[in-house]
Prior knowledge:
Distance between the termini: 36 Å
Shape: globular
Largest sheet: 3 strands, antiparallel
Amino acid sequence: MELAGASLRSRRLDDIAEALPQRAASLTRLFLTRTRLGISRTEVGVMRAVSTKPQRITELAAAEGVTQPAITLLVNRLQDRGWVAREPDSRDARAVLVRLTTAGRQIFDALRAEYRALVHEEMAMLDDDDVETLARAVEILDGLIARVEGREP
């Protein structure tokens, strides 16, 4: 009996491992198609990353899982929109840091508010038990993320 339970658990973990990234990507994609800004998921990721502190192009590329030339093109687009700016890195004269501009902060904050409103509107239709389940899932995912981030690559 215990072996059957372990097998079921293993299948469930496999299902979750496959489904979770797909569902998160679907939710993000659905939101971004409904926003008025015409912004990509990777552009949002870069804006989120530099919303807390300026970052190097190499850091942004690594965080988004894209090449340095690809992230440079993306940063150029965001800079052309006035949402990010480049500034010298005081620690390394050869490097530049990308930071969020005031206009970029306004856009990023508006995106976050729009996203929260959309998700809140949809989740308002859920019953209390489902809302509690989702809240607990977020807590569990935060713990999982912290554990994985704490491991050496």
